[in-house]
Amino acid sequence: MRTAVIGAGSWGTALAIVLADAGHEVGIWAREEDIASSINLSRINPTYLKSIRLPDQISAYTSMEECCRGAKLVIMAPPSHAMRTVAAKMAPYLDSDAVVVSVSKGIELDGFNRMSKVLAEVLDGYITPDQIGVLSGPTHAEEVALRKPAAIVASSTERQTAVFIQNSVITPMLRIYVNSDITGVEIAGSVKNIMAIATGIIDGAELGDNAAAGLITRSLAEIKRFGITLGAKEETFNGLAGIGDLVVTCTSRHSRNRYVGYEIGKGKKLSDVIDKMDMVAEGVKTTKSVKEWAQSLNVEMPITESVYQVLFEDVKPQQAVYELMTREPKEEAC
Questions:
Q1: 189 and 173 in one domain?
Q2: For 52, which of 34, 109, 154, 230 is 20 to 30 Å away at the CA?
Q3: Which residue has the higher pLDDT, 278 or 42?
């Protein structure tokens, strides 16, 4: 099958490898001419995952039209803040029977849209919302590209679409489960990045393993509270898209969001940390979106609020942690 990956970052590149391993012909769209040329000529992405040779089934393009031509499965892998713009550029070249899959984890600040909602809006008139799905779960591109074992979920409002994604992307080293709760899958995948920043702050400030474990556990409660308010199913947060993704993002050395928090916990400014990163830490922008969304819904999210204060209001990490620790005592289920 002809497939396309829109976005040649680390995750897009890793998924291109997965699709090639699954037996598909793969086109990958890159903004940068040097990345496309390097992939085609030397089989290396010179910016992301540059130690890994890409399969011969992958062809890189800077032309969106050429990349999408004939593709029956299109993976959308730009940063979440660029999803709307990139999807609009891609839309005219999309086959009417194609399935489009978001793998970006974030929430738009304007309108609080999940990425599947963004795609449904932008692609209206080209495909139906039932042709849109998401892939999410505990996966770091660095390990997936090396074909280390991982498990994730495919979700859509239409079960047939989720099953199509599952059957199209699954490989011996990437196991995919179907989950019908697309709201819960996307909320879990987005909000856990905020919690990874929080865990990084704890570790950077050397506040201990006990504090990190407690924070991760209460993070899950906070994500559940928010997701259930939005109509998600509680069991989603106990699965791969929930606790699975939360644990790996909060603890892995590959986690960009944890890295941001760690450096801030060490005393660095957010702007200085971001300026030195090649890749996007989605949790920074998502913190703003989720904080405002939660406030509009009257959902209590104290960890998210604390991360926001540290990132954008210059509150010291130790002070934010102290305020979390001295909140009014409650039942654990709250």
A1: no
A2: 154
A3: 42
**126 and 256, same domain (yes or no):** no
Distances (CA, A) of 8 to 14, 130, 146, 205: 9, 26, 16, 34
> C-alpha angle 148/149/154, rounded to 5°?
125
pLDDT tens by residue, 217-258: 999 999 999 999 999 999 999 999 999 999 999 999 999 999
Catalytic residue among 192, 224, 285, 291: 192
Residue 161 shares a structural domain with residue 274: no
The residue range of the domain holding 260 is 183-325
Q: Are residues 212 and 133 in the same domain?
A: no
Tell me if residue 192 is catalytic.
yes
| Pair (174, 187) in one structural domain | no
d(CA 276, CA 14): 23
Place of tokens 């849109």: 132
Start-end of H helices in the chain: 10-21, 33-42, 64-68, 83-90, 115-122, 141-145, 159-169, 182-204, 209-229, 245-251, 256-265, 270-275, 282-297, 302-312, 317-325
Whether 166 and 219 map to the same domain: the answer is no
